[in-house]
Design a protein that fits this description.
- The chain has 284 residues and is α+β, with helices and mostly antiparallel strands.
- It is 27% helix and 39% strand.
- Strands 1, 2, 3, 4, 5, 6, 7, 8, 9 and 10 form a ten-stranded antiparallel β-sheet that branches.
- The radius of gyration is 22 Å and the shape is globular.
- The relative contact order is 0.18.
């Protein structure tokens, strides 16, 4: 799998989201983390720092037929949290609060692979984890959103496997209808990780260079690899090397699901030095 990943020279990956959710930290703990990490963030290219205040509400729903509808919902307090944000010129954003740590990367040019962020993420997580003896991790997830455009939905099978999109069967079964959208969600499990495997198709209109409009189909392959629960996750975060290994495992699982979504023809095309297929847009 690592060899295949190194052979892929093009992609249509548009966004990466890594997120760690936890509890047991106070605002003072977050400030300690910032003091410890901000120079490392700056040296890594995250040169702009900002902060904002978020309101967090605990909403409870009471499922009791004897309670009037207007009393079914209760909101317990307004828990304000400061979110510190560090951003780079490459549309990379790190955010830290007392309840989550995230990395979001928007991609509109050549992607340098997730491996680039492993050391910084591992060091950050180790710092956050060590700040409070009450730290408990709730969820760790790596999500990648891949988006491309096709001008002919009938050609979808040239690029994607039937396991990813069975739209040909839908078109044949409902031949008297036009397919304008499709949403497919599959939940998988591998190596004790859950995988939300989401595939979307949406018809739209694109403005052409000559001013005319053309019908296009946005194709989305959205893969989220995650694990939940302090007992299941904390042992994977015992030191920086273990954290790196955990992130690499998530990344490998994600790539495996993604590559099984692609046709052999598309995989071979993505290996070429120059991508020349004009029927599929959004590949870089």
């Amino acid at each position: 799998m690592r060899k295949l990943r190194s052979e892929i020279k093009h992609n249509f990956l548009k966004q990466i989201i890594f997120r760690l959710d936890y509890e047991g930290l106070m605002e003072a703990d977050v400030e300690k983390c910032i003091l410890s990490l901000r120079q490392k963030f700056y040296d890594a290219g995250f040169e702009k720092m900002d902060n904002r205040t978020e309101n967090q509400f605990d909403v409870q729903i009471k499922m009791d037929l004897n309670i009037p509808d207007e009393n079914q919902f209760s909101i317990n307090g307004n828990n304000k949290s400061i979110v510190y944000s560090f951003s780079s010129e490459k549309k990379e954003i790190l955010e830290i609060s007392k309840s989550f740590f995230t990395l979001t990367v928007d991609i509109d040019q050549k992607y340098e692979t997730f491996d680039k962020y492993l050391s910084l993420l591992a060091e950050s997580i180790e710092t956050i984890k060590s700040t409070s003896p009450y730290f408990q991790v709730l969820r760790i997830g790596l999500r990648k959103i891949n988006i491309c455009l096709l001008d002919d939905l009938a050609r979808l099978s040239n690029y994607f496997t039937r396991a990813a999109f069975n739209i040909d069967d839908v078109i044949k079964q409902f031949e008297d209808c036009d397919c304008v959208a499709s949403n497919m969600v599959t939940v998988l499990s591998k190596n004790n990780y859950q995988i939300n495997y989401v595939r979307n198709i949406q018809e739209g209109v694109m403005q052409q260079d000559d001013g005319t409009q053309k019908t296009m189909y946005q194709v989305v392959v959205d893969i989220d690899v995650f694990k939940e629960g302090n007992r299941e996750i904390l042992s994977l975060l015992c030191d920086e090397q273990m954290i790196k290994d955990t992130l690499e495992t998530q990344n490998t699982i994600e790539f495996g699901v993604f590559i099984k979504s692609l046709s052999d023809e598309l995989i071979e095309t993505l290996k070429q030095d120059t991508f020349q297929d004009t029927a599929i847009k959004g590949v870089i």
